[in-house]
Design a protein that fits this description.
alpha+beta; 17 helices
Length: 369
């Protein structure tokens, strides 16, 4: 490709305005639609570079129709775009091809018709596939807890180019953040993950296992980073963009250096020092939210052992005491799907995520006599 790179969201915006919209005006003949670039792709989170252009990047977007219009006009709209779109836009092919058995699409030259990457869908269909529910129909505890934060980031990020339906912006607004009691709950579950391993950095190092100490410390760094997103009401992306996105958080200016020191350390004592600095910063940030009564954020010995820890379970208990919703109070301290499942393949399936969380919720309900 010899075209000049520009961010994918801007490419998609221009593609919609200059190439797609004129076709929709002819094809839909006054039927309202919305247009956006949501879903997968580094450009949706603003992290695309020239490297991104090698697969599933290019002139892409979603067209949303009402459910009834999708049923009667969806296929013909997709076909009209295939037949009438230019084969290139701003120097980039609009046609995508994939090798046999490879689901990944790559921009490729064609004489037409165009196998484009414009999804023609409805709000209910799109969010049902992406998240397992339609936010315009209400969001339950199951819905929130079964939605991976990467998916929530993808569908509240990106850009809306035209909201002719008058519903897409509202659907995205409803997905901006958890209700307060669920926020307290997932925060408590994140502190719980830290509390379960914070003493292991010193214990593994004490027996000469510096590799094991480093592994535990790195896990704790990830948990603290994910805690930072929760503290700032931001959806954490998946591993590839976790560090890049963390850098945009306000708390990163204070947490970044201690966490880097942990990962650079060559002894468990150095790791402990960096982690303790990070714990205290995160603890103070938690207190500043006033979601609970203040908790002393200073580190202390781990019982009678010579290791310094936060005893993060103190934050777990304080957050749990602040929950007023009886359904949320009954939940086990496990968390949202990302805090329970660490398998990429598992997190890709909305049905699987919902089944896992549904089982958690069922187990938390009081048994009937």
């Amino acid at each position: 490709m010899t075209a000049q790179f520009l961010p994918g969201l801007e490419l998609s915006r221009r593609f919609y305005t200059d190439a797609v919209l004129p076709i929709l005006r002819r094809t839909l003949a006054g039927i309202p639609h919305s247009a956006a670039r949501l879903g997968t792709g580094s450009e949706v989170l603003g992290f695309d570079t020239e490297r991104s252009t090698d697969h599933e990047w290019g002139p892409r977007l979603q067209i949303f129709l009402r459910d009834a219009d999708l049923a009667t006009r969806g296929e013909s709209t997709w076909q009209a775009l295939s037949e009438q779109l230019p084969t290139s836009f701003s120097g980039w092919p609009t046609h995508f091809s994939a090798a046999d058995g490879d689901p990944v699409g790559h921009m490729a030259e064609t004489d037409g018709p165009v196998n484009h990457r414009i999804a023609v869908t409805s709000i209910a269909e799109w969010f049902g596939h992406e998240l397992g529910f339609n936010p315009l129909a209400g969001i339950t505890t199951l819905d929130w807890l079964a939605a991976p934060t990467q998916r929530l980031a993808e569908n509240t990020g990106g850009a809306v180019f035209d909201d002719g339906l008058g519903e897409l912006a509202e659907a995205r607004r409803r997905l901006q953040w958890y209700p307060d009691d669920l926020w307290r709950y997932v925060l408590a579950c994140q502190w719980q993950r830290i509390s379960q391993e914070e003493a292991f950095v010193g214990r593994t190092g004490e027996v000469g296992d510096e590799l094991g100490s480093a592994v535990v410390a790195a896990r704790l760094v990830r948990e603290i980073i994910r805690l930072g997103f929760l503290l700032e009401r931001r959806w954490a992306p998946y591993a590839k963009w976790l560090g890049s996105s963390f850098g945009s958080l306000t708390i990163a200016a204070r947490l970044g250096e201690p966490l880097r020191n942990v990962l650079r350390a060559t002894s468990w004592q150095e790791r402990e020092t960096g982690l303790c600095q990070a714990y205290e910063i995160a603890g103070r940030a938690q207190n500043e939210l006033a979601l609970t009564e203040p908790v002393d954020p200073s580190v202390r010995p781990y019982h009678d052992r010579p290791f310094l820890v936060l005893h993060a379970e103190r934050f777990v208990e304080a957050l749990h005491r602040g929950i007023t919703d009886s359904e949320v109070r009954q939940l086990p301290v496990l968390g949202a799907i990302d805090q329970v499942v660490d398998s990429t393949d598992a997190l890709r399936s909305s049905a699987r995520n919902r089944a896992i969380v549904a089982a958690m919720l069922a187990a938390a309900r009081p048994s009937q006599p």
